Here is the input.
Amino acid sequence: MSIKDTLSQAAAIRDAVGQTVGKTVGTVAKDQMNHVVSTVLKQRSYKVLHAADASSRVAEQANRDLLFRLLEDNKDTEYGKQYDFASIHDIDTYRERLPLTTYEDYEDAITRMAEHDEKNILTAYPVVYYASTSGTSGAPKKIPVSDKGLQVFREHSSSMFVSVVSEFYKNTMLKGVPDGYWLAMMNFAQTPLPNGTMFGSISAACLNDEALKAMPYFACTPLDVFKCTGSANFKYLHARYGLAQRNVTQIVGPYIPALLDLMNYIKEEWKMVVEDIRQGTINSEVLMPDDLRATLEAQLVPDPLRADELEREFEKGFDQTIMLRIWPKLSGISSIWAGNFSSYARKLQEYSGRSIPYYTMSYVSSEGIFGVARHPHDQCYVMLPDSCFFEFIPVVNGKDDDEAPDAKTVLLDEVQEGKDYELVITNQSGFYRYRMGDVIRVIGFYNESPMITFKYRKKNIVSIAGEKFTEDHLLSAVRSFERKTGINVIDFCMYPDRDAEPGRYVVLLEPEEIVPKERYDECQAILAQELVRASTSYAHYVTGGNMGEPKLIFLQAQTFQFHREMKMYEMGINENQLKPVRVLDKPDLIKLFTLLEER
Amino acid sequence: MTTFRKTVEGTTLTIAPEGSVNAINASEFHDVVNESLAEVTTVVFDFASMEFISSAGLRVLLATQKALGKPGAVHVRNALPDVMEVLTVTKLAQFITIE
Here is the structure.
């Protein structure tokens, strides 16, 4: 059944129930429609899950087939002719003839495509979207997304969690996930490029028109809010509509810091939000475009019963049961939370408790979706052999072979458990042998497909004396620091201090609570030990005297939150486009963070 | 102890903190600003007697700027050198009017 059919059926139900007067009848009709839409979403989601499982059983063949389909389909493109795709009949020839690439190799072509609407340059498939990169610095890049590429994104990123979480409940509690609503921290705002194609975050492109029509029946927040391109306090709006809905079953957002920010906001502002729910109003002090305010206010009705319930629960306090007390049907939190984001997940569990499954969704970037988490609580991803053709450059600490422009790659069926690799992709949108710059570790196999964890970005490798220190090493050192000191760290970053003699690392931690000055020396010593423990190459240089002892800086409370908010305001992006800052690579950023030291 | 002097003249709200704005009193600072925000179009922060502002306080300045919408609607007056440095380095000074 298509979503269109679903909506027709839902409309029939609505008519049958009657929507003549009153909120109760309206709510009943909406809930009926929610049931129908939820059922179809589950069916579709299971279909995607089963297809992903099936291709994992023949991963090598599926990946090979994908490459040869891409070569055949794109042989008459400018790029295809340049490298004579038509004469490539084996993978070795493909690897020998095509160079490894980076974004800069495609920049001119992308400008011709996006600004002058030239076609058949990189891909024969219609380019239907340009995704902005979610990097933390510089102007956003434009990544072309073809119709075929977008289809893969849509199937695996926006609904797969429904079946994964449902399967988890069936297997562990012998029951499915109840029908209900999603508190979705999304923003679908996009802007047109000179050729008329839309440009925005990849998550904004993931819902097609059909899905957008169905959204009112499964999302708490109205569609007008998701589509708003103006300045608005989206946190208030998601809180306002999310809290008004008792039957929230899923909380969904691309990255988990946004979900934590929402709960922190609710903790700070619940009285205002609850009063608005009681009165059926939108707070007059909250920023939003006038037309959006007028549209929303026209649809709101007072809900004093829900407001009373919320007030009672909030007055009991914000402990680990608060999310289940205000949303009793809450069944899952779906957001990228593994690896670098795990500290945010731990903080969010202070509101959710540990019984709610956290699903880390997918390993995704603007260039492609590479893997999905197969089970809730997994911190690894099963690679998707139908999404991109994958190659892997072996990474060996301390050796620079992997830096060569003609570095040798291995294939999906050649990777080894426990080894680290830089990911190289050929995607369905015109990037060929593209170095992602991400280093992943193979931790096992799901059928034939590698299961991987994200380790670090190569551009975030810190080196002063020849060592290689990654964000993964830093994460490991900070986690051990927390265990040994009992100090919870909200967020952290570092930079190489090359002005010191000898050079040293400066590590900046934002503690959950102010650390007494008398503990500074102890903390400094423990951090130094843990950095040495985390990286043998760093240990070699620091114990040999080539590097100095690290410096620890405790940051003021809310420093990272301020930095994120400032970045969003400055760049006009939303929280879903922000990645954590781990290595301070610019003098102004170093100055900013060091100025915000707790003194 | 930090106090927040507040005056509203026409459509201009002026807030003058005395002491430091830190994580402990930032929510009070936020409330003092917010309770009059609907009535005004301009907010002036007079920092003549404010020795220090932390990240939590900076979030209040940014939230005020975002709430008022138009660039330059937030003014900062009489900022001491240390505070001015923070506003500059964090780039807040690019979006607010420094007097």
